[in-house]
Design brief:
Chain A is α+β, with helices and mostly antiparallel strands and 169 residues long. Chain A has helices at residues 6-29, 61-69, 102-107, and strands at 50-53, 56-58, 75-88, 113-124, 132-143, 159-168. The longest helix of chain A has 24 residues, at 6-29. Chain A is globular and about 55 Å long. Chain B is of the alpha+beta class and 653 residues long. Classes of the chains: A alpha+beta (169), B alpha+beta (653).
Chain lengths: 169, 653
């Protein structure tokens, strides 16, 4: 079990968190589809992502998109704070029987599951006077096994959301 | 043209903006047998009708030349002065140029002109004439150029002219300019002229000083404006301008181009009369542009610039035939409450024009004297358009065997009173802790100034700010000892008692599979919990002696402990800090039931009944007719209100 060293853990988890939040909030702000961010989009995971928004469980990413759209036009999410920890350095859940280059991927931190927390503002409407609210959001990201294959499809995300908890504050 | 006659009658029947009816009468656009000449008529036809003055289209008049046929003709001198003053108003003072700018280059007046530079006027005998010989030079150029051609005669028109020093710049379309160029070395009033193409970036200078004639004309226009201003109604009557005898005498409306300039000039003078926008807004609430043959508001676009806060506008008796003719005012007149469009062809051609007007002008309530929506309805519609945050519900606390609840009840008391004990009980060598500061959060404006961040900033691992790998590693605290060393340095805290002051917290808790098994037995990992808690604490910084409140969010990943020690362990503890701002109380706010279509329709019926006084059956009929578009339902209601039977309304109690 060649686990990633501490440096690799910090580097890979930070990068994963940064790439994820950049893409994810950009997708929300541009009302793009969210499915590909979640384990729901991978056949390797038999369970759907656990999505909890302001205290209500949302069954699918598409339902969350609907909820976001129901907020109306010009709603903008902006991140001010970001942090991440490793939950499991060698995540196994949903992994195929033989993971492609398993040891190398494990050592390079690609099999980690991580917890990501963000804090920021939601702006409702344009302009300086537009009302804004703080929010805090927690994600658990797990490896996308499909992206770890020998010839993965282009554009696959390396990590997928397994658990999400959003609260407007 | 049915609307003509109708326009007159409706105009008489009502008193559009509270104005006294004018003795000048309505539009007298000469048509049919009575038509003698187009000169002298305010002919504000769309630009599409005029640009190509080909050889056969125009034979009588060029650049404002009196034709000598029909009607009272202004003297050439007066017309010239008028032209000059308009030019100055258009390009002189800041106000005037601001007023005229929106039209510049769009109405085919400047764009596409070829500019020529003519030298010789100053040296000529004509220089001693009243206008410095300019008008004589221009008519000389036009006349000579027109007679140059050998075959078919064509009238050459100078569209623009401007004097700068010893040069006169003239603008004409490309074809005409080519003819005019041939006049180079022609003799004018004893002097050989030099006519050359001017460089492309020529801009007419705007330094012209006002001549006595200009001042006189300005005074005349001002006096006309003051006659047309009805102070008690705050109404400026700019209706039927082409039949104003004084304006006609001044030659201000002798052709279309002059008419457009005159209008801009009038707007510029209006602007000049008021020191501040507020003064103007207070003085003029209403403007009538009725009966001016306007078919496209481009022709009077400057009204929107000069009077952006106009409340009432009378456009009746014009020639607007579709919404394109009003397009240039879309998004303008944000305060407009009333508009009259009666007597325009659009009444017959666009059945939906009123609905479109209501969309274009956000405060518009009244069209053609019929109130289509009230100010309150507008406010409600605006409120409905505001973004609606995702509703809040109480805790989503999917606990397992009460572990999460017990952990939280225990954790904050222990963190406030015995951090070291807490670490030894629930943290181990693999536990991670870090904190992240958001120093720019939204905060309660009524709360005291936020506490300083000095005590936390050194260890903040906000990855948005901390970019170096070294700092990111240093600020991740792993294992009991490292966490304990940090917590000893952090300020003392006092969290609200969770049992007594639950509403000061929001907490969610869900099961989380796939955690590392600390015993190493389960390859697939073990199940745990993830908790997100939001709240506030009081802080005492033992180093600086400051106290105050802070807001926090804290995420915990909890897993099963090693057997023999604690039943659970903290895998991850992430603290996010921000300035104090009270949380929404999610415990009292009932989560609104999801609204399905049927409920929504019922709510709309109830609301329409409330706003209109109709009984629910009629509200439902009305709404179903417009496909449940509430705004349109109101419009329909207001239009058909008079025709509804008494039983449509709930009897007054």
């Amino acid at each position: 079990m060649p686990l990633p060293d501490a440096d690799t853990e910090v580097r890979v988890s930070s990068e994963a968190a940064e790439i994820f939040v950049n893409n994810y909030y950009q997708a929300i702000n541009s009302k793009a589809k969210l499915e590909t961010f979640y384990i729901n989009s991978s056949t390797r995971y038999s369970i759907p992502a656990d999505i909890s928004i302001n205290g209500s469980v949302v069954p699918t990413p598409a339902e969350y998109s609907k909820l976001l759209e129901s907020q109306g036009e010009n709603v903008l999410y902006e991140i001010e704070s970001l942090d991440t920890h490793i939950i499991n350095p060698s995540f196994q859940y949903g992994a195929p029987d033989t993971v492609y280059e398993s040891e190398k991927n494990e050592k390079s931190g690609r099999r980690m599951s991580i917890v990501v927390t963000t804090m920021g503002k939601v702006r409702f409407g344009k302009g300086r006077e537009a009302p804004q609210k703080m929010f805090n959001e927690t994600f658990v990201l797990v490896p996308n096994w499909d992206a770890m294959a020998r010839n993965p499809a282009r554009g696959l995300k390396r990590w997928l959301i397994m658990s999400q908890n959003f609260r407007a504050l | 043209m049915a609307p003509r006659g109708k326009a007159q009658s409706t105009r008489e029947a009502r008193n559009p903006l509270g104005a006294k009816s004018s003795s000048r009468g309505g539009i007298q656009k000469r048509r049919g047998p009575t038509r003698v000449d187009t000169d002298g008529d305010l002919d504000m036809d769309g630009p599409s009708k005029r640009p190509n003055r080909g050889p056969t289209t125009e034979t009588s008049g060029g650049r404002g030349r009196p034709s000598g046929r029909g009607g009272p003709q202004p003297s050439r001198g007066a017309a010239k002065v008028a032209q000059i003053v308009m030019k100055q108003l258009g390009g002189g003072s800041d106000l005037a140029s601001r007023v005229s700018r929106p039209n510049r280059g769009r109405g085919g007046q400047i764009e596409g002109l070829t500019w020529l530079r003519v030298r010789g006027l100053k040296q000529s005998k004509a220089a001693s004439n009243s206008d410095g010989g300019l008008s004589d030079l221009l008519s000389f150029l036009e006349r000579k150029a027109s007679s140059l051609g050998t075959g078919r005669k064509r009238h050459i028109t100078i569209r623009k002219s401007h004097r700068a020093g010893e040069f006169v710049f003239v603008g004409a379309n490309k074809e005409d300019a080519e003819e005019l160029l041939k006049l180079n070395t022609f003799t004018f009033a004893g002097v050989q002229l030099e006519v050359v193409e001017s460089n492309g970036d020529f801009e007419p200078s705007s330094k012209a000083t006002e001549s006595p004639e200009t001042a006189e004309l300005r005074a005349k226009l001002q006096s006309i404006l003051s006659q047309r201003y009805i102070g008690e109604n705050k109404l400026l009557k700019l209706d039927a301008l082409a039949s104003d005898p004084e304006l006609v005498t001044l030659g201000m409306f002798e052709n279309r181009e002059r008419a457009l300039k005159t209008f801009k000039g009038l707007m510029a003078i209006c602007d000049g009369l008021f020191k501040t926008a507020q003064e103007k807004k207070d003085a003029i609430h209403s403007i009538s542009l009725a009966n001016n043959s306007i078919d496209n508001v481009i022709q009077v676009e400057s009204v929107a610039v000069s009077f952006p806060q106009l409340k009432n506008l009378d456009m009746s008796g014009n020639q607007v035939s579709n919404m394109d003719g009003l397009q240039r005012w879309k998004g303008k007149f944000k305060e407009l409450e009333t508009i009259y469009m009666t007597g325009n062809p659009i009444e017959g051609t666009d059945v939906n024009y009123k609905t479109t007007l209501l969309e274009w002008f956000p405060k518009l309530q009244n069209i053609n004297g019929v109130e289509l929506r009230t100010a309150q309805q507008i406010a409600e519609q605006e409120a409905a358009r505001l973004p609606k945050p995702i509703p809040q519900s109480g805790p989503d606390f999917r606990d397992v065997n009460g572990i999460g609840e017990q952990f939280l009840l225990d954790f904050f008391i222990a963190y406030d009173t015995n951090r070291e004990g807490l670490i030894s009980r629930l943290y181990d060598a693999g536990s991670q802790f870090s904190l992240a500061v958001d120093a720019v959060s939204v905060r309660d404006p009524n709360a005291p100034p936020p506490l300083p961040w000095a005590a936390y900033i050194k260890s903040s691992r906000n990855l948005m700010k901390i970019n170096s790998h070294h700092a990111r590693s240093q600020r991740l605290f792993k294992g009991q000892a490292a966490i304990n060393d940090l917590w000893k340095e952090l300020p003392m805290t006092k969290h609200p008692n969770m049992k007594e002051e639950l509403s000061k917290y929001i907490m969610d808790c869900h099961p989380l599979p796939g955690l590392a098994d600390p015993t190493g037995q389960s390859q697939l990992g073990v199940d745990g919990l993830i908790l997100a808690v939001h709240g506030e604490f009081e802080e005492y910084d033992q180093k600086s002696g400051t106290t105050g409140k802070r807001s926090f969010s804290r995420t915990f990943v909890l897993g099963p402990g090693l057997s023999g020690t604690a039943p659970i362990r903290v895998v991850s503890d992430m603290l996010s800090l921000r300035a104090y701002s009270p949380l929404p109380n999610v415990f009292v706010a009932p989560s609104p039931a999801p609204v399905d279509a049927a409920n929504q329709h019922q709510a709309m019926i109830a609301e329409l009944s409330k706003q209109t006084g109709m009984v629910p059956q009629y509200s439902e009929m009305c709404l179903s007719q417009v496909d449940w578009d509430f705004g349109r339902a109101l419009v329909i209601f207001n239009e058909k209100k008079a025709q509804l039977p008494p039983e449509a309304f709930a009897s007054a109690v």
